[in-house]
């Protein structure tokens, strides 16, 4: 059995400099975590669900 490919985390482009930031890691699923509380875990989304969420958020922007 091979080791899973390590994920590269990056700060969301929607995060502000006010300390309310999330990091995202894409792969077979999309992982999201709080930059100030990384040890508390992460949320996992399937690619279709993540794409749907982003499309909804973009559509709601003024």
List keywords for this structure.
62 residues, alpha+beta, 4-stranded antiparallel beta sheet
Radius of gyration: 13 Å
Portion of residues within helices: 10-25%
Characterize the largest beta sheet: strand count, sense, and whether it forms a barrel. Answer: 4 strands, antiparallel
With helices defined by DSSP (H or I, 4 residues minimum), what is the helix count?
A: 1
Query: What is the average of the pLDDT values?
Result: 84
The proportion of residues in beta strands is 25-35%
Helices and strands: which structural class?
A: alpha+beta
The count of DSSP E runs of length 2 or more, i.e. the number of strands, is 4
Quaternary organization: single chain
Low-confidence stretches: none
First-to-last CA distance: 48 Å
Categorize the overall geometry: flat
- H/E series: EEEEH
Strands of the largest sheet, in order across it? 1-2-3-4
């Amino acid at each position: 059995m091979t080791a899973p490919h390590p994920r590269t985390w990056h700060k969301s482009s929607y995060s502000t400099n006010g300390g309310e930031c999330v990091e995202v890691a894409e792969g077979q699923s999309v992982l999201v975590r709080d930059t100030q509380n990384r040890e508390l875990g992460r949320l996992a989304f399937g690619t279709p669900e993540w794409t749907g969420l982003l499309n909804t958020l973009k559509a709601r922007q003024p």
